[in-house]
Every structure is written in C-alpha cells, then in structure tokens.
Design goal:
about 475 residues; alpha/beta; FAD/NAD(P)-binding domain; 3 domains; 7-stranded mixed sheet; 16 strands; about 35% helix; globular; binds flavin-adenine dinucleotide
Length: about 475
C-alpha cells in the first residue's frame, strides 16, 4: 500500500488530502502532520477574533474548483443564514472562523469517505524538523526525534511568520514587547500602557491587528510604518467585470508594455468614475502566465518598483472595514506613515523607535509600548529559524528561485527541483511555496486548483508505475 505524507494541514494540505482521497481508486495511506489547534484551518482560518473576516466574497470561496458555489451553499444551510438573501450572502464577506468550520466539516466528511474506500488516514499533531530524500522514499523527523518514512511527500507549509526588519540593534527582537507573529492573540492582549502601539507594515494584517487591538479595549493611538504608507483600498466595484484589457493581452508582453497597457485602461475607466480595481482584477486569471514569461530582470524590476502598488490594488478590504479604518485616521487614533525603521531600543517603560520618514525626509523618534510585526509572511526560507525547509536548502534537496520567493518546482507536476536541477520523483510542493514560480499562489482561488491538479497528477504517476511493475512481472 502506497503511503503519502502531507507536511502542513492548513487549507492547502487539507484540500490536497481531500482531493487525493476523492480520486483514489485503491487502498492507500495518507498522513497529515500539523499541530492540532490549526489543523484544517491553518493560519488564515483560525483567527483569534470573530471580527476577522474573509477578504474574498462568499461566492468565490468554494474549496472545490469544480463546484464554485460549494461554500455559499454550505453557508445557506447554517441556521444563522437560512432566511437570508442568497445573493446578498454570495456578495458579502463572512468571518474567517466560519470558513475554518467549513474546512473542518469537509475534512470530517472526507474521513468517512476514506473509511469506505479502505484508505488509512492518520493525522499527527506535531511539527516536522528535518527531511531526507532516499532512492524511492522520503524520511521525516518530528519534534520528538521520531523518524517516519513515506513513498511520497507533499510540502504544504504555507505562510511563514514575518521576517524581523533589519535594524541596528537586532537584540531588541528578544524583547517581550515585540510580537513577531501577528496572528496570535497574545500580540493584542495585556496592554497596560497608554503609549501608542507600533505596527510595522500597512496591509491586511495591519487592519486585522487594528481590529484586534480595538476589540481588546485598547484606547491609545496606533501608528503604522511601512515603506510606502499607501492607503489600503476598499472593494469598491464588487461584481464589475472589465474585459477590454484582456482583449489586448498578447503572449510575451514585456513588463514595460504591460504597465503601459494597464495604465491606458485605468485612464479609460476613470473617465466613467470607476477606479483601477476592476482593471487589475481582470488581469488576475492571467497573472501566473504573465509572470512565467517575464525575464529574471523583469521579475526583479516588478519586485523592486511595482510590488507594493500591485499589493495595494490586489489586496483590498470590505467597505465597512475600510470606513472604520478611515474613521480612526480622521479621529487621530490611527497614523499611517511611510518610512524605514532604523533602530529600536527598549527602556523600562517604553520603546523608542527611530525611523526615516519618506514624506519629509527626516529622522523621527516615537515612543511606543509594544511593536507588532505586520509585514506579511516571510518567503526567504533561509531566514526561517528552525525550519526543515532551511535544512533542505542547505542539503541541496531543494533550491529557491532567484528572488527568494519560494521553492523551485515544476508547476505542471509540482515536483520539487533539487540543486542538480532535477525533479524529485517523490517530493512535491504547492501553495505559497510556489510564489517564485507563479507569483499569485496564495489565495483559495489558486490553491484549490493546485490541490486538485496535484492529486490528479499523483494518481496518473501511481497508475503508470503500477502498470510498469505489472509489465515487468509479466
Ligand atoms: C491572515 C490571513 C488571511 C487570509 N485571508 C484570505 C481570504 O480571506 N481569502 C483567501 O482566498 N485567502 C486568504 N489568505 C491567503 C491564505 O494564505 C490561503 O487562503 C490559505 O489559507 C493558505 O493555506 P496554506 O495551507 O497554504 O497555508 P497556512 O494556512 O499557512 O497553513 C500551513 C500549515 O502548515 C503548518 N506547518 C508549517 N510548517 C510545518 C512543519 N514543519 N511541520 C508541520 N506543520 C507545518 C502550519 O502550522 C500551518 O497550519 C489569507 C492569509 C492570511 C495569512
């Protein structure tokens, strides 16, 4: 019986297992390794607050690529939603906790299906600390130093905690007043001082953290510092589909030509009082293809000059949350600054942060009570402490893309490429580890398709190897 292990049981690991079980025609073993608390939900759908909501509408959050209304239909069966208007719910942004419950229910149903198919399912509440690839198998070491060996291994490790920004006094990051992981509730509780709280970063996690701080009764000021200090945008034109740009998309567009094309269409929609978002959204189904065709230099240019602008246009928040953020800014409770943090020093009762203000080009000092890192998931695996992925990079089992956005892999088969440039027979990856290969490889919309494709691909590989074995015996 072939045994597969999935490292990481967030959305990606869970849905890969679900698809493997769904497609399996013969008994097999499937093991998922993930700590119990976040199993099925991962980082995104195990929020500490009910007020943390999805940034994608209900109608687009199905876990299955071939059943687009699956999440919406599931929501409509829940007692709280049964007499609500379905179109309204389809276009609304629901709590991420509810989405976590949806994934847990999918998993519970899938385990029952697995039993009927003779599939052995095993969930291990642990953390993988090392990995080795053997001739026809993969070995893993867990936190308790136990060793497990499988025929196939799928790496679905998802979001890494944010990187510590480079500052002069790096030892500050040992401080109890610094919170590197913004997705844990301890980052927003037990604030005893009236001094401001500093949030490093200005994206969706910053917004969640502001909401978390307010929910915990924090009454002081909140300061955010990020390189550009862009204002986060709301979803303004929900449902508006713009098609004119894609009609003009051709293969092999250079980055420069693409920017020119996008600007032309943004100008065209502005004449009708529409902002850039529908134009950017219309590119979404094509971004992976466009990214793959860019040269290394174009990818570098995009990362250094356009990444933040793209992020603002792509990662938007529901209008009512945006209103709340704006109100806080108007009231002087939230200050969004563009700048670079130079140094941080801790005294007994406060922390002093020195940053270079990008608006007036001066050095500024602020006193805060705590600092929460909201810069978003780290992608350079060499910077992730105590990670088996870092060990694998050192051992040459895997390599990073040039921009250090993830793991190098074949995006058709999902096979991980080793330091000799060869694909591993039994080691696969998907999800945000493919950011370097695909750029957009983060949201449910992309991940559900990858989970389905990888499961199908593994089935084909298995069937062809079984056929080969049978032929050899014959
Ligand atoms: C705060 C937040 C909100 C988001 N909201 C949305 C949204 O509304 N809509 C949307 O489409 N996308 C959203 N996303 C994008 C999100 O990344 C994906 O939707 C999806 O949840 C990613 O799932 P994942 O399983 O790949 O990663 P993760 O959710 O990060 O899960 C990975 C899992 O792997 C485990 N793991 C990692 N390393 C190991 C190891 N060595 N051993 C064992 N286990 C390990 C982790 O503990 C974790 O449970 C959000 C992301 C974040 C961070």
């Amino acid at each position: 019986m072939k045994k597969t292990v999935i490292i990481g049981g967030g959305f990606t690991g869970t849905m890969t297992a679900v698809q493997l079980i769904k497609k399996s025609t013969a008994p097999c073993g499937i093991t998922i390794i993930n700590e119990r608390e976040t199993f099925n939900k991962g980082v995104a759908y195990n929020p500490y607050s009910d007020k943390h909501i999805l940034n994608v509408i209900t109608g687009k959050m199905s876990a299955y690529p071939d059943n687009p209304d699956h999440f919406l239909d599931w929501v409509m069966t829940r007692p709280d939603f049964q007499d609500r208007d379905k179109t309204l719910i389809a276009n609304s942004f629901l709590p991420r906790k509810l989405y976590g419950e949806y994934l847990t229910e999918i998993w519970t149903d899938t385990v029952k299906t697995a039993e009927t198919k003779g599939i052995e399912v095993n969930v291990i509440d642990s953390f993988v600390i090392d990995l080795d690839v053997n001739e026809n198998s993969v070995s893993l070491w867990l936190e308790d130093d136990s060793k497990l060996t499988f025929d196939t291994c799928i790496i679905a490790t998802g979001n890494q905690i944010p990187r510590n920004p480079a500052i002069k006094n790096h030892s500050f990051y040992e401080s109890k007043k610094y919170f590197q992981n913004p997705w844990l509730i301890n980052s927003v509780i037990n604030i005893k001082s009236d001094l401001p709280v500093l949030l490093i970063g200005n994206g969706l996690t910053m917004v969640d953290t502001v909401i978390g701080l307010l929910e915990q009764g924090f009454k002081g000021e909140i300061i955010s510092v990020s390189p550009n200090g862009f204002n986060i945008l709301p979803h303004r034109h929900n449902g508006l589909k713009y098609t004119k740009l894609t009609e003009e998309l051709t293969d092999n567009l250079s980055l420069f030509e693409l920017v020119r094309l996008v600007n032309k269409h943004i100008k065209a929609v502005r004449e009708y009082g529409v902002t850039a978002e529908p134009v950017i959204d219309s590119l979404r189904p094509h971004t992976q293809k466009i990214w793959k065709k860019f040269t290394d230099r174009e990818k570098e240019l995009f990362m250094s000059r356009l990444r933040h602008l793209w992020g603002v246009a792509r990662h938007r928040i529901p209008l009512h949350i945006h209103d709340k953020i704006q109100k806080l800014q108007i009231e002087g409770r939230l200050h969004i600054n563009a700048g670079k943090i130079i140094d941080i020093t801790e005294s007994e009762n406060f922390i002093t942060v020195e940053y270079f203000d990008h608006h007036d080009h001066t050095l500024k000092n602020i006193k805060v009570s705590r600092i929460i890192n909201c810069t978003g998931p780290e992608t350079d695996l060499m910077n992730v402490e105590k990670s088996f992925l870092k060990n694998c990079l050192i051992k040459g089992i895997l390599i990073q893309d040039k921009l250090k956005l993830g793991i190098t892999a074949d995006t058709e088969t999902f096979q991980v490429i080793n330091s000799d440039g060869k694909p591993h027979e039994s080691l696969f990856t998907l999800g945000s580890n493919l950011k370097g290969e695909l750029w957009e490889s983060t949201a449910v919309n992309e991940l559900r398709g990858q989970a389905e494709k990888l499961a199908e691909n593994l089935k084909v590989i298995r069937e062809s190897s079984e056929m080969k074995n049978a032929e050899t015996k014959f």
